[in-house]
Amino acid sequence: MEWEKERELTKRAKKGDEGAFEDLVRAHQRKLYNYIYRLCENHDDAAEITQKAFVKAYFSLGNFRGDSLFRTWLFRIALNTFRNHVRDEGRRKHQTLDGLDPPAQEKTFSMMVQKEERKKLAEAVQTLPERQREAVVLRVHEEYSFNEVAGIMGCSVGAAKASYHQGVKKLKETIGGDEQ
Amino acid sequence: MTCNRTDITQQLPDLLAGKLLGEVADKLGEHLEICSYCAEEFRALSLLAAREVPEPEAGFFDGLPGKVIRDIREKKTVSRARFRLPAIELNWKVGLAAASLAAAALLVFLLPKTEPVLVQKPDDAIPPISVAMGFETNILTESDYKISDVSDALELEVELTEDDLREITGAFLFGGIDYMDMDADALLLFEEELDSIPQRS
User: Fold this and answer.
1) Coil, strand or helix: which one is B139?
2) Residue span of the structural domain in which B13 resides
3) Which of A174, A172, A136 is nearest to B1 (CA)?
4) Reported ipTM
5) Least CB-CB distance to B48: which of A33, A43, A171?
6) Cβ neighbours of B40 in A, within 8 Å
7) Rounded distance, CA B139 to CA B141, Å?
């Protein structure tokens, strides 16, 4: 969505225009859902958290000043919603990872190895401590800079970098790439 | 085997995302050719980034915006119906002033005939009150006493400050937390603080 259009929609939504907010939801829902899914690996939780995050965002629009992108601000709310969800509900579920890979016909040996490694990595991401997982997902999947990662996580840039590096180091160990 | 070039490793996700061009990208590429540590990290990141999120059930994204709007409307309705506070929302100061005046007038009228009313202050022995109406959080009043409803406060004879009332009013009207007066940093801190409050089962 173009920045100008998004700004206009945000402005209207702030004044209570539900249609404008609905357009914002439509524009960001897939990205937000995918982000949350990568954190929890569970559709039901990802769907619930995504919905809750949008509702929270609507009631929080008053404090969105437009200093950052709407998506960055939304991700921050979503991450907070995710943290609350994990803590309050205690239901971090781990679904089988068999269904995570793309359904392409992968027949060559190297592709099978890659598939196995992707699966291992996906499992390993879920075993990372919360902050490390958040930093890795935001940096690698969502392609945020460390400044943005820190902003979303609500920590210093140094802490975001440290979480990221610790997380990546553990992931490398998973596929045998950083053994001592 | 390790590599101390954090300037390189920190940029690998950007290289992977195709955000780096020209000389910067070339330099990283050259480093990856001679450094197996960073090359392995780049490979791990590539594999990780290639992992796709499975598509949710058909119609999920078509239905989500409508669900969100429905939730928003429900929250607004529940808040207003439950607490009947639209007048306070519009002008709580006037309401508070009017209530104070009415209470003072009543007191003057009743004082000669009745004993003074004792207001019991909360103490640590009183357990926190659970969240009402499915709201996600309790309210921490200025007196460090948790309440979840104005009526709870009245029943327990807790004295509320003007700030307490404003916070409670906002929370009820906007579905849990008075986000409206908070910037993003304050919001995170506030939510973390609320998260740390033990909930009564």
Assistant:
1) strand
2) 6-50
3) A172
4) 0.78
5) A171
6) 172, 177-178
7) 6
How far is residue A15 CA from its own chain's centroid?
28
Angstrom distance (rounded) from CA B146 to CA B140: 5
How far apart CA A42 and CA B2 sit, in angstroms, is: 35
Residue B42 lies in a domain: yes
Residue A22 binned pLDDT confidence (cut-offs 50, 70, 90): very high
In chain B, which stretches have pLDDT less than 70? 1, 78-95, 108-201
Whether A1-92 shares its CATH topology with A104-180 is answered no
B122 shares its domain with B181? yes
CATH top-level class of A104-180: mainly alpha
- How far is the C-alpha of B36 from the C-alpha of B67, rounded, in Å? 49
**One-letter amino acid of B41:** E
Are both B141 and B74 inside the same structural domain? yes
The alpha carbon of residue B114 and the mean position of all alpha carbons in its chain are separated, in whole angstroms, by: 44
**Distance between CA B37 and CA A15 in Å, rounded?**
53
CA distance B84 to B90: 12
Q: How much is the pLDDT for B2?
A: 79
Class of domain A1-92 (CATH, top level): mainly alpha
Average pLDDT over residues A142-161: 92
CB contact under 8 A, A29 and B9: no
